[in-house]
């Protein structure tokens, strides 16, 4: 995919200042404490390979365990036929039965996990690949079960028993937490091509499975040493197939971002690309990525390329697809072709893409809700980047908040907010936000429309970050689909200049709404309200204009929803009025000033220094 315009340029500069390079750490509150009954399914293994070596843990002495000084069955690797960890009692459903290897690190529920450990499970004797008739063209295959939290589950090899090379890991698996994710299929078949790491057929090869934290810079945090467990069985070395193209990654979208709903006014050319690895013995010629939109309404291919054995190339469809600027649905099918017949076609299959052109809604999420984003007891903001291709008036941000026992809390005060991104500095620039909204039961598990005050004229060529947030706990935001790194975010706090910004790969249900009908029937009684000075370290003054004569009630709430001022003004005439805010008495922080009259309420934000 072409990543040459706005999004790529912005984050080359902005991420250094505003973001960390990893998603937010899962906390103990995110831990799934009930046992998970994962689906039992035999995954397809790489076909046509010849097994030259295998081990099913029938003989534990075939493996050397280093448990980093820890003792007892609750720490490190063990080999037996019993599940010894806190999370699962079922073990792994491997076809060989009998013994299996299991990784444990204490009981997370009892907070007994060991810190600063690296647990390794290594073949006790070297494997003579050359004598077994193999070459460098071999793959490591095994069955596994478990789940990810903040840990690193890794595969390594060595040809001298001293120098170890990482050849794979499970970071492609989703994190299992109270907000979503899943355990591995039981069992999950893993295949790691070793050919890129070997030169010639080794006469000795050691295989190692290693566990430690994925966040070494946070090693003092006990949360990074929690594990659900990791089970291994039926380890094999298998010869690679002759012809095997593997799709290792795909991308699609406009200027690097994909959208599942696109307003007619924001339609832009769409690219399709794929990373293709040649994991077979032979070079592959005339390799192409092909796309077909709506059964032939658009057909495109990448330029043909030759991919030599063990090389990876990124290919992009030569002609961009631009949807018509009318409401419609699109389905995109994709496939890889080459001169040779692929021996293992399953590993280059790509799922279909479906998206819509809509009247007014701009959505990064795919509308298939799975899990949610939360931040424990802290306030936070979460949302997505949007590229604007034509000037438009943005009136609202739509969000979806989950309900139920693990959903958002009724009574929580939330807001939506819009930032633009400075194309030179990469800074997030505040544009507008909504009035505070106190959640009611009917606000949950629905497409909630939250209007901005004021509306924003978004401009072509600018990237915006749309978020929903809360200053207190109780907010949870539905996720739907996945995002490329550094395109969806969680702000741990509510000040973009001082809070920590994490990227997240789950896409929050936070959308832009350009519906022109919004607000057309609203005639607010209170107009042109302003607080001066704002911020202030003493008394401030609220000035507002009444459209008609009426009673007015001014209330001030802190971020926790506590009322700190209540002023009732009877029989005010139309025109301009002033009310003193008793802010000299208040603690430093953010306050919301509500001006109510004739059934309408205008809310302004005030900051006490």
Radius of gyration, whole Å: 29 Å
Ranges where pLDDT stays below 50 over 5 or more residues in a row are 1-21, 42-47
Mean of residue pLDDT values: 90
What is the CATH top level name of the largest domain?
Mainly Beta
Largest sheet descriptor: 11 strands, antiparallel
CATH fold field value of the largest domain: Jelly Rolls
Query: How many distinct beta strands?
Result: 41
CATH architecture annotation of the largest domain:
Sandwich
* Overall geometric form: globular
Number of domains: 4
Oligomer: single chain
- Helix-residue proportion: under 10%
**Number of helices, counting only DSSP H or I runs of 4 residues or more:** 1
Structural class: mainly beta
N/C terminus separation: 47 Å
Strand content: 35-45%
Briefly characterize the structure.
The protein is mostly beta strands and about 600 residues long.
Salient structural properties:
six-stranded antiparallel sheet; 4 domains; 41 strands; 609 residues; eleven-stranded antiparallel sheet; Jelly Rolls; single chain; Immunoglobulin-like; mainly beta
Structural features, described:
The chain has 4 domains: 49-239, Jelly Rolls; 245-358, Immunoglobulin-like, CATH 2.60.40.10; 366-513, Jelly Rolls (Sandwich), CATH 2.60.120; 526-608, Immunoglobulin-like (Sandwich). Residues 1-21 and 42-47 have low confidence and may be disordered. The chain is built from 1 helix and 41 strands. The protein is globular, with a radius of gyration of 29 Å. By secondary structure, it is mainly β.
């Amino acid at each position: 995919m072409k990543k040459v315009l706005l999004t790529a340029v912005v984050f080359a500069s902005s991420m250094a200042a505003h973001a960390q390079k990893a998603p937010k750490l899962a906390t103990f509150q995110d831990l799934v404490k009930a046992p998970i009954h994962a689906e039992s399914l035999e995954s397809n293994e790489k076909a046509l390979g010849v097994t030259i070596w295998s081990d099913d843990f029938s003989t534990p002495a075939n493996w050397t365990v280093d448990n980093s000084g820890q003792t007892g069955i609750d720490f490190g690797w063990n080999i037996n036929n019993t599940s010894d960890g806190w999370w699962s009692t079922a073990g792994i459903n491997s076809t060989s039965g009998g013994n299996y290897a299991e990784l444990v690190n204490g009981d997370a529920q009892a907070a007994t996990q060991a810190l600063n450990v690296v647990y390794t499970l290594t073949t006790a004797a070297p494997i003579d690949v050359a004598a077994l008739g193999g070459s460098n063209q071999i793959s490591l295959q095994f069955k596994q079960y478990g789940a990810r939290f903040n840990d690193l589950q890794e595969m390594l090899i060595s040809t001298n028993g001293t120098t170890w090379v990482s050849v794979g890991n499970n970071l492609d698996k989703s994190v299992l937490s109270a907000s979503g994710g899943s355990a591995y299929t039981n069992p999950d078949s893993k295949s790691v091509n070793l050919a890129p790491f070997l030169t010639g057929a080794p006469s000795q090869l050691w295989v190692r499975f290693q566990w430690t934290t994925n966040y070494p810079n946070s090693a003092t945090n006990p949360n990074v040493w929690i594990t659900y467990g990791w089970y291994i069985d039926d380890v094999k070395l298998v010869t690679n197939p002759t012809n095997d193209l593997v799709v290792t990654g795909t991308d699609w979208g406009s200027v690097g971002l994909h959208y599942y709903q696109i307003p007619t006014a924001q339609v832009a050319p769409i690219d399709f690309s794929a990373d293709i690895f040649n994991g077979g013995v032979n070079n592959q010629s005339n390799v192409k990525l092909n796309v077909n939109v709506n059964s032939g309404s658009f057909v495109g291919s990448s330029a043909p390329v030759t991919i030599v054995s063990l090389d990876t190339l990124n290919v992009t469809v030569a002609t961009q697809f631009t949807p018509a600027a009318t409401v419609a649905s699109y389905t995109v099918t994709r496939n890889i072709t080459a001169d040779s017949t692929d021996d293992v076609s399953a590993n280059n299959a790509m799922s279909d893409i479906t998206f819509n052109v809509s009247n007014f809604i701009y959505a990064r999420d795919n509308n298939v809700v799975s899990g949610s984003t939360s931040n424990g007891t802290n306030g936070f903001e979460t949302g997505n980047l949007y590229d604007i291709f034509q000037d438009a008036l943005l009136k609202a941000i739509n969000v979806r908040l989950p309900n139920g026992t693990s959903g958002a809390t009724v009574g929580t005060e939330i807001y939506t907010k819009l930032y633009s991104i400075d194309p030179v500095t990469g800074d997030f620039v505040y544009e507008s936000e909504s009035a505070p909204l106190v959640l009611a039961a009917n606000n949950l598990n629905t497409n909630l429309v939250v209007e901005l005050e004021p509306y924003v004229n978004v401009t072509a060529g600018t990237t915006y970050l749309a978020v929903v947030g809360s200053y207190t706990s109780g907010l949870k935001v539905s996720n739907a689909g996945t995002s490329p790194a550094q395109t969806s975010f969680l702000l741990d706090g509510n000040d973009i200049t001082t809070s920590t910004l994490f990227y997240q790969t789950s896409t929050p249900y936070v959308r832009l709404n350009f519906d022109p009908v919004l607000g057309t029937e609203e005639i607010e009684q209170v107009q042109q309200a302003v607080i001066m000075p704002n911020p202030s370290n003493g008394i401030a003054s609220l000035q507002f204009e009444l459209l008609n004569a009426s009673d007015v009630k001014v209330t001030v709430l802190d971020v926790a929803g506590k009322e700190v001022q209540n002023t009732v003004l009877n029989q005010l005439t139309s025109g301009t009025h002033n009310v003193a805010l008793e802010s000299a008495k208040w603690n430093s922080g953010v306050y919301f000033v509500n001006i109510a009259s004739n059934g309408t309420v205008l809310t302004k934000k005030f900051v006490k220094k």
